[in-house]
Amino acid sequence: LKCNNDPEVTKFLADTGIGFDCASKAELVQILDLGVHPSRIVYANPCKPCSHLQFAANNDVDLMTFDDIHELIKVKQYFPKVRLLLRIQSNKLHKAKHNFNKKFGCALRSAKRLLVQAKHMHLSVVGVSFHVGSLPEDVTSFSTTICDASLAFKLGEDLGFDMTILDIGGGFPGVDTEHMSFEKVAAVVNTALDTYFPESRGVHIIAEPGRYLATPAFTLAVSVIAKRVVQENFEECSGCHACLDVCECHGAFESVGDDVVRKEEPIRDESMVRMYYVNDGIYGSFNNVFTDHAIVHPCVLK
């Protein structure tokens, strides 16, 4: 939902039988209104408002994550019959453009303490979850964190929990690059799962490949609403707005009836660049230029 919550997208995915990772009451409402059964939803936010917990309880969304004692206290009060996934931090040996370790996930050294506390509170922990971060720089971040998850699983099993679910989170690329592709990630993930969570172990594996599903399915269409020529340091080209004469930067103008039309010509001055303005921006669809350091490649639609 965080990648693309367009109603047509979510309805299409819901009709395929896919599951959903929801992080708020609003997202829960959107998916439940599509008729998705609560068993297909993971409430994957380890920091939930009490009112949202109550909503989840009232709608039987009983699988959710936690990473802190305070969350266990809230869960015990508002939804004691919940099934919990312990969210651990991704392995710190690897980097991602957006690493969530500062916000979410417990360190592996804290896992036993939290599991013991959940046991004392008579809460049900059924598995482990993690997220390697958005746009990870190294595919092996998946394998090392899956290894860490197997250690957390063992801690839970030793305490008597029925550990049956592993949520390997997101981080799957939407666009393949030389160093990162879905196929490379899948190969690393499958090898790690075969090693640490073989099929004989009976663990249900879930993932959150939202970016992989949403990104390649869409092309953003915008309109060019203005343009101008400036120097590379973005100083406006002088003299071109004051007259309709020939200008090396802008090209020549000619009269067509009562209109003045400019004939587009190549820019001859290498210090000049032509800027185009579109009817969208960084506070809209292009927010990923800042948040994901995305490089946008425009093309003309005819």
From TrEMBL:
Pfam families according to UniProt: Orn_Arg_deC_N
Domain of life: Eukaryota
Swiss-Prot/TrEMBL keywords: Lyase, Pyridoxal phosphate
Cofactor(s) needed for function: pyridoxal 5'-phosphate
Single GO BP term: putrescine biosynthetic process from arginine, via ornithine
GO CC annotation terms, alphabetical: cytoplasm
Family annotation (SUPFAM superfamilies): Alanine racemase C-terminal domain-like (SSF50621), PLP-binding barrel (SSF51419)
InterPro entries, per the entry: 4Fe4S_Fe-S-bd, 4Fe4S_Fe_S_CS, Ala_racemase/Decarboxylase_C, De-COase2_N, Orn/DAP/Arg_de-COase, Orn_de-COase, PLP-binding_barrel
Span of the signal peptide: none
Limits of the 4Fe-4S ferredoxin-type domain: 228-258
MF annotations from Gene Ontology: ornithine decarboxylase activity
Functional note: Catalyzes the first and rate-limiting step of polyamine biosynthesis that converts ornithine into putrescine, which is the precursor for the polyamines, spermidine and spermine. Polyamines are essential for cell proliferation and are implicated in cellular processes, ranging from DNA replication to apoptosis.
Family of this protein: Belongs to the Orn/Lys/Arg decarboxylase class-II family.
PANTHER family: ARGININE/DIAMINOPIMELATE/ORNITHINE DECARBOXYLASE, ORNITHINE DECARBOXYLASE 1-RELATED
Name this polypeptide is given: 4Fe-4S ferredoxin-type domain-containing protein
Gene that this sequence comes from: 106051500
